[in-house]
């Protein structure tokens, strides 16, 4: 086209203004300020069919949703031309229910406002008394072409991206001008990349070899996985048609995509493995204290996690609209008033839940230690049975209090998004878990090695009797140590609300894994737990990636652990001792 | 730990041979009575068919409990994998029973199953029987596998575990992991073992109908008698084993493994033997359980089920012959009643029973008479805990 489109549009409106004086006001400034609605009005009032199609075609690339609605109305024969008392022709859409006389409310096509008479009262019109706006097959085709490309100009980025990808995947050459037009004005980098890909894909489907090669070299640079299958198809076609240059270029492009894929997979797996390991670490760290240091086999450790998770749930509800629940057996109804916070203040519930989860689980742990575990320090195997009984009781109490269904814990905004760096997705909640696991490990290490309580804990765990002889109140130290271990489980519970489900039996999912982690790391060694948690997490995720089968991967990890203990029966970093048990 | 922690003498060592025999006679008489009286009363309509099936299942659980007791009570190995061996035995016989359904399956009835596959395979779109299923057409092979597969698994796992001297808590945690791994494996459909629904809808065993209105009760009676007889045989075996030198070494391992080791015994071999035998006893229990319960699925295989079996033994009294039987029957009868009467509180009751038994009654129910008589004589300090084998601080690092 030699005449710029804007100019033709102007000329066209000029022509129209001659034909239809009423439109002069609209058409005068048509080229820039004309809205999609006004363009449609112009199309309706044009009498020439070819011109009509051309005006409608000029809407390509616009993202106004009104276009879709109006075109639908047009095709369904609900657009009419109303002739005002002063002779002006106003296209209207009749919508809503018909009343007794068959009249419907009328909406002006040019601005979407209700049609009003001189007194400013909304008019109701009867469709059969007005001139309907007609349409033929070719016009409908033109409208469809506009609607098809409507999303291309959508102000919503996700919608735009989807439209671009759909057009690219369809590889229809007639859409090329629209894409190129969009590329001129598109500013978003993601959409620009998508546009380049879509253009290249359409070029790939071109008959000419040169255009194909241009497309392929572009696709090689973009190396998107979405283009993989299409390139493969093109290569097969080129092989049968005998275009060796295209085949070669396609192979190069496919290799580039493969390489990029394995790069993403490698780092993606590394990241997921680290985050899975961090969850395991947070879950197992509490156990490393109660089991590793104290020698108590706390099968109710999973329920301490559940306590933390439900504490998060309650905190969320208190920040929101409050909640009611009834304590089982004693039948005391508890009403927690809500703070009715919204926006950021509400989102902060998660920050508040962290200390609340820790303290509530620590409290339950201390109660458990005082009532049951303190009698069992010399009978570790029986502590397994007793705490399993406790775990059954707690699970049932959760079920009776909060219901047996999973409860919903919202993800705060600051944890529910992600970063994409080099096509690798980093979910914020996982990044957060990794960071938090590190913080907790440092905290525990500092608490155990640099505080007076840590000193007491270590000496009591090494030799309870001797510590007691030296005047350490071992009972109290036991209680606090167990509280610390349980509190850490509670912290883990706060975190798993962001990654898994929250229900009465959720703790059971973690118990076997966390015991394995502590055993592999070497009982009594916090550092060993860190290494083994990260190692198991990475092994688990890599096996899942390699085998494409999560269950088989998990089984292999368990078998590997059993074999590993053949080699090091006391775990990775066992406390060295010459004593014989 | 090298500190000379006093090792309390084990109950069996303290017991006079006479009391050991007395216990066996009690168990023998009770079980014989059970074997005879229940079926006879059932045949005359005094005991309902439902009760017979229920008690048949209790007896299978008792077998599982005996296997736990053999390991934990007598050898000091707390295995959390017995439910795995129990269900493996059940699965092996279940495969045979599945193949017997044949033309009575719902797909076969609808004419959609020309190959005569088990229903779940048709459902999953299989067109032919996987090769490892084929030998299970034979009852003899299935029974052989009931012993072989769990035995072999126990042999391999036990060899690895005992060779590297994994013991105490570590052994428990490892067996728990093994059970967990197996259960998630059996939950998968592509293992062609029925996925999470497992095997169900059995029709025949050895040519006898399990579901027929007229002949079904007689089959169930037969299975009940078989369970009772096997239980009796298991008790006989345990009793015999306890009397042998092997049995004594085994108990010595429980009370002080290192001393036995330094006395020149290869403790790993002793433990391995007991582990394999216990796995087989549990597997037989599972095999008898499946036709009576009419279902086997991976839920039976979870670590939680294993712990439950340990609890039956703890409640009944470990290190005794009659304790596990009382525990298994008692707790399961209580469950049957409580899950109907107090469905909400059943788990709490069960949990509370554990706590009470572990904290206040380490010898289990069978030690109750001794405790009471001691209390009556007002000399509680004179009676040491009867059945608490020395748990030294061995699990501590």
Tell me about this structure.
The complex is a heterodimer of chains A (581) and B (397). Chain A is α+β, with helices and mostly antiparallel strands. Chain A folds into three domains: 5-145, no CATH class; 149-242, no CATH class; 263-536, ABC transporter involved in vitamin B12 uptake, BtuC (Orthogonal Bundle), CATH 1.10.3470. In chain A, 64% of the residues lie in helices and 7% in strands. Chain A has 24 helices and nine strands. A five-stranded antiparallel β-sheet of chain A has the order 4-3-2-1-5. The longest helix of chain A has 50 residues, at 244-293. Chain A is elongated and about 110 Å long. In chain B, helix 3 crosses helix 13 (322-341), helix 9 (216-243) packs across helix 10 (245-262) and helix 12 packs across helix 13 (322-341). Chain B has helices at 11-14, 17-43, 49-75, 82-101, 106-109, 119-123, 139-163, 168-186, 216-243, 245-262, 267-293, 303-316, 322-341, 346-360, 368-376, and strands spanning 199-200, 204-205, 208-209, 295-296. In chain B, the strands form two sheets. Chain B has a two-stranded antiparallel ribbon. Chain B has a two-stranded antiparallel ribbon with strand order 2-3. The model of chain B is unreliable at 1-16 and 382-397 (pLDDT under 50). With 397 residues, chain B is mostly helical. Chains A and B meet through helix 17, helix 22 and helix 24 of A and helix 7, helix 8, helix 12 and helix 14 of B.
List keywords for this structure.
heterodimer; A: 581 residues; alpha+beta; ABC transporter involved in vitamin B12 uptake, BtuC; 5-stranded antiparallel beta sheet; two-stranded antiparallel sheet; elongated; B: 397 residues; mainly alpha; two-stranded antiparallel ribbon; 4 strands; globular; disordered N terminus
Rg of chain A, alpha carbons: 35 Å
Largest sheet of chain A: 5 strands, antiparallel
Span between N and C termini of chain B?
9 Å
What's the average pLDDT of chain A? 79
Integer count of domains of chain B: 1
Which outline of chain B best applies? Answer: globular
Q: How much helix, percentage-wise, in residues of chain B?
A: 55-70%
For the secondary structure, the number of strands of chain A is: 9
Mean pLDDT of chain B: 84
What is the SS-derived class of chain B? Answer: mainly alpha
Strand order within the widest beta sheet of chain A: 4-3-2-1-5
Most residues in contact, chain pair and counts: A-B, 53 and 54 residues
């Amino acid at each position: 086209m030699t005449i710029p489109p804007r100019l033709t549009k102007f000329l066209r409106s000029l022509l129209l203004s001659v034909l239809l004086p009423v439109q002069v006001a609209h058409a005068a400034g048509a080229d820039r300020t004309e809205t999609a609605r006004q363009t449609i009005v112009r199309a309706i009032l044009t009498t020439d069919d070819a011109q009509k199609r051309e005006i409608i075609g000029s809407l390509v690339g616009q993202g106004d949703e009104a276009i879709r609605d109006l075109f639908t109305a047009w095709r369904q024969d609900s657009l009419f031309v109303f002739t005002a008392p002063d002779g002006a022709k106003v296209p209207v859409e009749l919508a809503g229910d018909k009343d007794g006389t068959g009249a419907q409310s009328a909406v002006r096509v040019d601005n979407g406002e209700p049609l009003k008479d001189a007194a400013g009262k909304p008019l109701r019109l009867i469709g059969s008394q007005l001139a309907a706006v007609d349409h033929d097959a070719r016009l409908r085709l033109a409208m469809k072409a506009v609607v098809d490309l409507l999303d291309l100009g959508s102000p919503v980025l996700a919608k735009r991206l989807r439209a671009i990808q759909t057009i690219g995947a369809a590889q229809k050459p007639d859409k090329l001008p629209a894409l190129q037009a969009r590329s001129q004005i598109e500013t978003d980098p993601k959409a620009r990349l998508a546009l380049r890909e879509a253009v290249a894909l359409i070029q790939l489907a071109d008959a000419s070899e040169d255009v194909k090669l241009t497309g392929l070299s572009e696709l090689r640079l973009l190396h998107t996985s979405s283009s993989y299958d299409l390139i493969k198809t093109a290569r097969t076609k080129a092989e049968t048609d005998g275009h060796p240059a295209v085949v070669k270029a396609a192979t190069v492009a496919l290799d580039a995509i493969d390489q990029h894929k394995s790069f993403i997979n490698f780092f993606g797996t590394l990241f997921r493995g680290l985050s899975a390991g961090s969850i395991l670490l947070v879950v197992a760290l509490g156990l490393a204290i109660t089991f590793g240091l104290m020698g108590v086999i706390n099968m109710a450790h999973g329920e301490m996690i559940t306590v933390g998770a439900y504490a998060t749930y309650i905190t969320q509800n208190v920040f929101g609209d409050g909640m009611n629940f009834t304590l089982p057996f004693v039948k005391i109804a508890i009403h927690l008033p809500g703070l009715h916070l919204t926006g950021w203040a509400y989102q902060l519930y998660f920050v508040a839940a962290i200390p609340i989860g820790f303290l509530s689980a620590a409290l339950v742990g201390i109660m458990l230690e005082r009532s049951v575990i303190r009698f069992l320090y010399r009978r570790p195997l029986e502590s397994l049975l007793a705490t399993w009984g406790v775990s059954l009781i707690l699970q049932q109490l959760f079920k009776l209090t909060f219901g047996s269904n999973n409860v919903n814990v919202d993800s705060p905004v600051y944890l529910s998004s992600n970063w994409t760096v080099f096509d690798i997705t980093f979910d914020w909640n996982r990044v957060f878990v990794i960071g938090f696991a590190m913080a907790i490990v440092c905290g525990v290490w500092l608490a155990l090695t640099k505080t007076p309580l840590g000193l007491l804990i270590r000496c009591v765990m090494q030799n309870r009797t001797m510590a007691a002889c030296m005047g350490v109140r071992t009972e109290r130290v036991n209680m606090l140590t167990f509280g610390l271990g349980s509190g850490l489980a509670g912290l883990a519970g706060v975190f798993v609300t962001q990654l898994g489900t929250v229900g009465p039996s959720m703790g059971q999912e973690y118990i076997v894994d966390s015991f394995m982690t502590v055993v592999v790391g070497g009982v009594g060694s916090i550092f060993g737990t860190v290494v083994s948690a990260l190692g198991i997490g990475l092994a688990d995720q890599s096996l899942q990636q390699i085998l494409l089968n999560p269950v088989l991967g998990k089984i292999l990890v368990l078998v590997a652990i059993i074999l590993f203990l053949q080699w090091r029966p006391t775990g990775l970093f066992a406390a060295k001792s010459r004593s014989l048990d | 730990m090298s500190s000379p922690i006093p090792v309390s003498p084990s109950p069996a060592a303290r017991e006079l041979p006479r009391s050991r025999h007395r216990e066996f006679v009690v168990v023998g008489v009770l079980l014989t009575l059970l074997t005879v009286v229940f079926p006879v009363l059932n045949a005359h309509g005094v005991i309902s068919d439902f009760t017979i099936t229920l008690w048949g299942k209790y007896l299978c659980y008792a077998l599982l409990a005996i296997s736990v007791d053999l390991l934990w009570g007598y050898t000091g190995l707390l295995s959390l994998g017995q439910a795995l061996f129990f269900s493996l035995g059940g699965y092996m016989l279940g495969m045979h029973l599945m193949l017997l359904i044949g033309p009575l399956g719902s797909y076969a009835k609808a004419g959609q199953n020309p190959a005569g596959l088990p229903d779940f395979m048709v459902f999953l779109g299989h067109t032919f029987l996987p090769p490892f299923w084929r030998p299970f057409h034979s009852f003899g092979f299935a029974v052989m596998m009931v012993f072989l597969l769990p035995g072999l698994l126990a042999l391999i796992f036990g060899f690895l575990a005992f060779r590297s001297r994994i013991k105490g808590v570590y052994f428990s945690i490892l067996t728990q992991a093994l059970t967990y791994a197996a259960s998630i494996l059996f939950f998968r459909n592509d293992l062609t073992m029925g996925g999470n629904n497992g095997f169900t809808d059995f029709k025949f065993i050895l040519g006898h109908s399990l579901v027929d209105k007229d002949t079904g009760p007689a089959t169930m009676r037969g299975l009940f008698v078989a369970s009772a007889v096997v239980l009796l045989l298991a008790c006989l075996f345990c009793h015999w084993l306890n009397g042998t030198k092997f049995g004594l070494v085994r108990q010595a391992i429980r009370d002080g493994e290192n001393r036995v080791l330094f006395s020149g015994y290869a403790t790993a071999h002793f433990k391995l033997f007991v582990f394999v035998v216990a796995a087989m006893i549990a597997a037989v229990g599972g095999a008898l359980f499946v036709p009576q319960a009419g279902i086997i699925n991976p839920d039976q295989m979870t670590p939680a089920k294993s712990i439950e079996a340990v609890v039956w033994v703890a409640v009944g009294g470990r290190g005794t012959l009659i304790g596990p039987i009382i525990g298994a029957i008692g707790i399961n009868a209580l469950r049957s009643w409580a899950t109907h009467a107090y469905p909400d509180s059943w788990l709490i009751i069960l949990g509370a029973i554990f706590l009470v038994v572990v904290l206040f009654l380490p010898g289990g129910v069978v030690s109750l008479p001794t405790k009471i008589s001691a209390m009556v004589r007002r000399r509680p300090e004179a009676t040491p805990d009867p059945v608490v084998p020395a748990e030294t601080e061995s699990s501590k690092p």
